[in-house]
């Protein structure tokens, strides 16, 4: 699944124009180009960069990671997508969240890119189901696990539901994006729990 999503991400990026690549994504202050830099950074970054980055960021992994994405993104896009394809089956897995976190990261960032650009990019049902199961597990704390507390989530386009309490209904993609803090999808969600989720996301 991870290998397939890496290849799909490269396919999504390859035809983009320079203007599209410089469009702000849904991921913080990153452009589409910088999201690509983040996705490819485990394979394209030099080990010698990490310590200076950590020092400059005062040992904030979040800030160091953001700067690393920008550094990698300076390389030609064709080189980066080729690097991603070459490493499609690379066993890299982030600490704590592992391969499930990597799978989820790839799918969410693909939507971070395609939504601002208005591109069609359907999720793969089994891939997004696997990520939804991960996002409601204890291992997903790095993705903002507190948002799901006391709510029931139900996908309208997939046989998937989880939790107890007021219900949040929406497409599997919209639920995945909401569970990872993308507030842009909140108007796409319905049910008594949707208002609760909107309040939590506004804090």
TrEMBL record:
InterPro entries xrefs: DinB/YfiT-like, Maleyloyr_isom, MDMPI_metal-binding
Signal peptide: none
Residue intervals of the Mycothiol-dependent maleylpyruvate isomerase metal-binding domain: 2-88
Transmembrane regions: none
GO molecular function, one term: metal ion binding
NCBIfam families linked: maleylpyruvate isomerase family mycothiol-dependent enzyme (TIGR03083)
Protein name, UniProt field: TIGR03083 family protein
Record organism: Micromonospora mirobrigensis
Taxonomic lineage from the root: Bacteria, Bacillati, Actinomycetota, Actinomycetes, Micromonosporales
């Amino acid at each position: 699944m991870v290998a397939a999503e890496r290849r799909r991400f490269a396919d999504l990026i390859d035809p983009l124009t320079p203007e599209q690549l410089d469009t702000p994504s849904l991921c913080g202050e990153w452009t589409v180009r910088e999201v690509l830099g983040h996705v490819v950074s485990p394979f394209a970054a030099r080990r010698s960069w990490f310590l200076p980055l950590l020092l400059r960021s005062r040992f904030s992994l979040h800030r160091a990671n953001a700067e690393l994405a920008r550094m990698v993104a300076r390389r030609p896009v064709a080189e980066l997508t080729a690097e991603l394809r070459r490493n499609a089956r690379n066993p890299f897995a982030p600490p704590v969240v592992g391969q499930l976190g990597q799978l989820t990261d790839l799918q969410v960032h693909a939507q971070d890119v395609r939504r601002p650009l208005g591109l069609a990019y359907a999720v793969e049902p089994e891939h997004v189901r696997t990520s939804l199961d991960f996002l409601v597990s204890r291992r997903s704390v790095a993705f903002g696990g507190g948002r799901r507390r006391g709510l029931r989530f139900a996908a309208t386009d997939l046989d998937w539901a989880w939790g107890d309490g007021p219900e949040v209904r929406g497409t599997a993609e919209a639920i995945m994006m909401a569970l990872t803090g993308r507030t842009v999808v909140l108007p796409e969600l319905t049910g008594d729990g949707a208002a609760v989720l909107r309040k939590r996301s506004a804090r």
